[in-house]
Here is the input.
Amino acid sequence: MADSTNNRGEPDRSRVAGGEDYEVEYFANKHGISADQARELIARHGNNRTALDEAATRLRSS
Here is the structure.
């Protein structure tokens, strides 16, 4: 069945799906951190991609 054109929400790309290994791996590789570190950031900061990008940048600079 096709998606409803009446049900429009925020794009999925604005979030990181912590339960999806491929998304966690992509995020970790993008920022040069381990997958475990990426999962910790997701647990601590939620799944908002902008907030996670900032947190990962701070983690790498420390």
User: Anything to note?
Assistant: The chain has three helices and no strands.
